[in-house]
Amino acid sequence: MKSNGNILSEKVLVLNRSYQAIQITTVQKAICHLVKGTAKVITPDWTTHTLEEWILASQFYAGNGNGHRFIRSPNLSFLAPDAIYLVSYDRLPRVEVVFSRANLIMRDRYTCQYCGKSVKNPKDRTIDHIIPRSRGGKTTWENVVLCCRKCNIKKGNRTPEEAGMKLLSTPKAPRWESLIMEDFPKEKQKVWRHFLDFAGIIES
Known about the structure:
The protein is an alpha+beta fold. It folds into two domains: 7-94 and 176-199, no CATH class; 101-163, DNA Binding (I), subunit A (Orthogonal Bundle). The chain is built from eight helices and nine strands. 23% of the residues are buried. Residues 99-153 form the HNH nuclease domain. GO terms for molecular function: endonuclease activity. This is HNH endonuclease. Pfam families: HNH_5.
């Protein structure tokens, strides 16, 4: 059974009042929103609950094997929410993802984009400019890929065509919703994907 402290640090998907995903927060911060009345819990069947309603509804889950995700105190016991929506917030979902090494690694799923090898070991992980910087290549989503050290050495200061190498896919800027789905447990992905699919922002 997880402690309250561990559960409070788990992630929660945040939707605006149009049910569009706008950010990720923690269970602890989600509860703060619920206490203040600025948010409600939302479940995959689109039922919404105030904190008081969620405390009562959570008891339904008590016998369903989900007890390890309950927030417990001497007087209260309720299930940690997977998603909340902000009742008066109209902010639109993020579209652009800031270019960074960490986001690039997530976009390319820890995989060398030339040979397909897993590069989860940082020592074997490099960043390759498809058109080398020395030849005018820019550091953009479309010109940079994750690459294993062996392939990077093989490619050198050449284009993939000149090196006789082929990219596994055409690099492009990711959507932030697609990025976050790569970095969370399968059960979390399943629940969140339901909401992201609804807004039409997960690409197949």
